[in-house]
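User: For a reading group we're discussing how well predicted structures match intuition. Take FPL domain-containing protein. Before you show the prediction, I'll give you the sequence so everyone sees exactly what went in.
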Amino acid sequence: MFGRSRSWVGGQGKSKSIHSLDHLKYMYHVLTKNTTVTDHNRNLLVETIRSITEILIWGDQNDSSVFDFFLEKNMFAFFLNILRQKSGRYVCVQLLQTLNILFENISHETSLCECLTPQLLSH
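Assistant: Thanks. Here is the predicted 3D structure of FPL domain-containing protein, as structure tokens, for the group to look at:
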């Protein structure tokens, strides 16, 4: 879908599918370690956001536990936190593309509502 390879190397050197809950958990770990956008982590964050988008769309069609994890960890709040920073055009464009892709491709409307509702209520 996004033209990337279909596997990644996990913590113990095993090749794993990038379309999995395990990979989303890894991406969450990356987000938690990079909450502030810097020149050093800008590319990493863009790739992480892109990967999360791909996993969420795959999960919407194949594994509901993926979106459940995304909601449980309130990962959307990380996206909003990044948007609130003066992180530069590169990161903001990726986030806006991500939101657009999610809104266009998530087939379960309740998934999107569950994702957005806590954010809308907090403001």
